[in-house]
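Figure-free illustration: sequence to structure, shown twice.
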Amino acid sequence: MGYLNNRIRLALFASGSGSNAERICEYFLKHPQVEVVLIYSNKNNAGVFNRLKSYGIPYAHLENKESAKGKNLLALMNQNQIDFIALAGYLRLIPKELVEAYPNRIVNIHPALLPQYGGKGMYGHHVHKAVYDAGETYSGLTIHFVNEKFDEGNHICQVKTEIKGLKTADEIAAKVLRLEHQYYAAILEQVALSTIF
């Protein structure tokens, strides 16, 4: 494992355009103890690959059918000597084999205040539309450990923001995304260092 050399080898999992993944890469670019060494996606044409091309970080892809077999995903992590995993807009359920191999070393960010507006199918615009349709006056983000169910792992932190007066789900999405970019990488750093060292 990389952390034996005082370097934590971090893999980023993303299914979409990868704006959070890019912020994380920026944050850890010259970090003395944490290095992003793999970008993984379940989509071979995911926007994250193109977005992060300039960073020169290796990337990998497995079809959904293959990644659902946890041993395949675990083998990929082992091949790359991954110590810690961060989900950044990754839309697949993490298989049991990976959860068990990385206890408290897989972290996700969800664009709402869990346990509300979480679970299967609740991602991206679906979340913000549900929050808007419910007439909520607050939303925010939840950073949590990953278990074998969508959005049910133990919470690490939540950040709450007022959305009263915002006129569309897109406005809520934009405000929450700014918070995600502000907090996620720093929280990942704290959790990775405290978990592994």
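We now fold a second protein in the same way, so the two outputs can be compared directly.
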Amino acid sequence: MKSFAFIVSPITIRQIKDFWPMLKIVPNFIIKSSLKNLPPFKVSHIKKIQSIQGKAIEGFLIVCPLLHQQAQDLEENLVIDKVLAAGRIAERLGSRVIGLDNCASVIGDKGYDAITRNLKIPVTSGNALNTWSVFEGVYRMAKAKKINLKSSNLVIIGATDPIGSLCARKLSDYVSKITIVAEERNELEQLKERILYQNPIEVIIEEDAHRAVKDADIVINANNSSEPAFNVEELKPDAIVCDIPPFYRVRVVDRPNPRQDIIIIRGGLIKMPYPLKGINTDLPKGIIYASLAETMLLTFEEKFVNYSFGDNINLDKLEEIADLAVQHGFEVWVPEAPVI
């Protein structure tokens, strides 16, 4: 049976204790100060995952014991070494492809080159399926609300993040105005050039998310920060927000939505054709993160190549991974706008 490995970094100390119960008696401050010295470890063996085609695969969940914020603050080489150590566990387990979620967000092209050069098996970040899920979620929600995408003001927070960048490029085919928001002005300028090369639409660069969202009809939050980028109260009436909260991301709303006119949907979530045993998340039964789903789909297809990893992902991969998801019975999960 073909197998994959999926490497995650925890968000909180509580998650580390859930992964490694023997640490429950250890004070949090000791765990936090010791994390960069702890080796990666296998936490789960998912023994049977089925596709509607009748194919079956297995997988391993490997924890890279660095809190996401720590990974952002450490030297990139230290983070790369941690990921490589986790990758070598995957190799010993016989995995044919490795999926990354949290770690991929703090590793740029330098890290991509180092990881692919030093591991014997290919790697993916899940960014292709993550982006497709956001696109489909926004498209379905706009259709359900009878919103004309072409005349909508789209704002993307965290536009220089790989998922934010992919969303901007993909949705530039459907809207006439995009405001891209991030702190890295030079990277925003480069993204603007890429969008305009693809489509002659209006692209606005903005470094202040609070200012950007005031006139937004649709907001995609790909913010890769430890703090929310904006408040729901700042949005115009009837706006749509697509929040992308893989394991580490801060959600826009951590309490009941104070604005009943605002629709908040979660991107990056996939419904499996059959319930999954052997992995615990905070998600409803049968729902998994898109980054994990992409790794599974590549394994089902025996497509053992470096896939959506690095800063220059071809948009064709979004269509390809979406087609594979349909073939194997995986569905973008947006309960507020179900498939009709």
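Summary for the second example: The CA atoms of residues 10 and 314 lie 29 Å apart.
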